[in-house]
Amino acid sequence: MRVFVDSSAIVALLFARDDNHQVAVDCLRLLTMERAELILSNFVVAETYNLLAARTYPARAREWLLANTWPVERITVADEEEATPAPGLPANGRRGGSVLPFAIPLSSAVFRADRRPISPWP
């Protein structure tokens, strides 16, 4: 089984004070026992790096980036073009001047049926 790991799960794993830390640890333990293949997208790597740098300090974010061993699926321009915005979002991804993330539609485009099946986590 392949499992797509979101940045919120990574941050929860790394910060013991995170409200979801224990749930993330338990999920990781279970997925490891089941020999699940945990994967990230290049967008999740970038988002996680930025979240870690903002919550702690850049050195810790770099450590995580260099230590990551989970495979990274690259989101391409074609994936972005194929992705459709979540309901209620305009096609350009902007609402009120701020850019909103396309993580869900992009993930759907990248991990669609013609590629290997994938499950989201968390």
Structural features, described:
With 122 residues, this protein is α/β, with parallel strands linked by helices. Helix content is 48%, strand content 15%. It is built from six helices and six strands; from the N terminus they run βααβααβαββαβ. The protein has helices at 7-14, 21-33, 42-55, 58-67, 77-82, 103-110; strands at residues 2-5, 37-41, 72-73, 94-95, 98-99, 119-121. The strands form two sheets. It has a four-stranded parallel β-sheet. The two termini are 14 Å apart. Mean pLDDT is 75; it is low at 92-106.
Shape: globular
Largest sheet: 4 strands, parallel
| DSSP E strands, number | 6
The percent range for helix content is 40-55%
Reading the helices and strands in chain order gives EHHEHHEHEEHE
Oligomer state of the chains in this structure: single chain
Over the alpha carbons, how many angstroms does the gyration radius reach? 15 Å
pLDDT < 50 runs, ≥5 residues? 92-106
Secondary-structure-derived class: alpha/beta
End-to-end separation in angstroms reads: 14 Å
How would you state the average pLDDT, rounded?
Answer: 75
Strands of the widest sheet, in order across it, are 3-2-1-6
